[in-house]
Amino acid sequence: MNIPQSTRVAIIGAGPSGLLLGQLLHRAGIDNVIIERQTGEYVLGRIRAGVIEQTTADALERAGVATRMHREGLLHDGYELCIDGQRHRIDLARLTGGKHVTVYGQTEITRDLMEARATEGLPTVYEAQGVSIHDFGSAHPEVRFTKDGVQHTLACDFIAGCDGFHGVCRASVPAGAHRTFEKIYPFGWLGVLADVPPVSDELIYVKSPRGFALCSMRSHTRSRYYLQCSLDNKVEQWSDEEFWAELRRRLDPAAAESLVTGASIEKSIAPLRSFVTEPMRFGRLFLAGDAAHIVPPTGAKGLNLAASDVSYLAEALDAWYNTHSEEGLARYSERALARIWKAERFSWWFTSLMHNFPENAGFGQKMQEAELDYLLHSEPAQATMAENYVGLPM
Ligand code: RFL
Ligand code: PHB
């Protein structure tokens, strides 16, 4: 591939944010180039999100990449909360007037987006080294990087920072130009992916005296399970046998009994964090997705926020190029942050409700118990939870 020297929008990062933005821009007739530091295989190897809101499914539809999701994705109109060995169903469809979520892995969405991009011949530079961004305070920003030992400069009108939490874009913003808000949780999630049938047709979020667990899935034959673990745990400390034994201890007796176990095909530990940077626009640099915010995975909101960010951004750039309106770009940060803070609240609340907190003895624990008791016996409380879980409107 010839590496272009100029484009309209330079997108940094080929995760779901960058790839979806690229596809939405292409559909609006806006040239873009994606610069990614890893290989495509590496990006596909990261096992992450599994639950897709309707607004994300709609964005994939607009991007022209929803065919396989419609065919293979699993529609879920409820999930269960298992509290100290007893299961309670949250009936999403009934509580939200017919809404549902789709269980379809981030890996599959990423693969669909990569394939669409390759089919349409859109430029993506993988294994770009030393990526740096310049002059985004001016009308002529630039991206510089090295590929196969050769230095390249990409001139552009705008830079989209879709390069995740550890990327270069947010780090390039002068310290005084933004504010960050952060909460670190005192535990992580140990995740296992295995080719075994899921323990139940629906997701089960588990709170037990031994800590949180989650039973999720990717298909009728592939399961994804998580355990709350200590931050000083290493993946190597957890054999498959130990993982399954600990999961069984946290489940209710019926689920523990019917759990099918097998060899893990992926095992990893993720720390839990809430993080937001404000604003998300710096001249001609726009941050989107994990580059601007992180949620703990309990609410299943990270990928969904990435999709709403890039939907707002694509709409704003479409208006700029095709109707010469600057309003969408001017309002991008404010619009995106309004949705982000509500998802931050929900993810923090659901995380606080379901996990064991070392510091939570006494009053904190009583508050958690009262909150759970209220939720399980109040229809309006369940409706609020369901409304947030299926996703607030964009
Ligand atoms: P990504 O996916 O991190 O992609 C960023 C890309 O940028 C590249 N990059 C660079 N490229 C060029 N130059 C540089 N200097 C670069 N630095 C980095 C990286 O290589 C990478 O390819 O961010 P993006 O696109 O914003 O997507 C965000 C989502 O990945 C994330 O929010 C979700 O995975 C979060 N998440 C979930 N979200 C949901 O909506 N539903 C879920 O069920 C859900 N479950 C999860 C999750 C995240 C998890 N982990 C491990 C954090 C479950 C887990 C366990
Ligand atoms: C997942 O399947 O990976 C998953 C599902 C729901 C969550 C988080 C992760 O809340």
From TrEMBL:
EC number: 1.14.13.2
GO molecular function per UniProt: 4-hydroxybenzoate 3-monooxygenase activity
Residue stretches making up the FAD-binding domain: 7-347
Alphabetized SUPFAM superfamilies for the sequence: FAD-linked reductases, C-terminal domain (SSF54373), FAD/NAD(P)-binding domain (SSF51905)
Keywords: FAD, Flavoprotein, Oxidoreductase
InterPro entries, alphabetized: FAD-bd (IPR002938), FAD/NAD-bd_sf (IPR036188), HB_mOase (IPR012733), RIFMO-like (IPR050641)
Pfam families per record: FAD_binding_3 (PF01494)
Domain of life: Bacteria
PANTHER family: P-HYDROXYBENZOATE HYDROXYLASE, TRK SYSTEM POTASSIUM UPTAKE PROTEIN
Protein name in the entry: 4-hydroxybenzoate 3-monooxygenase
Species for this entry: Uliginosibacterium paludis
Gene label: pobA
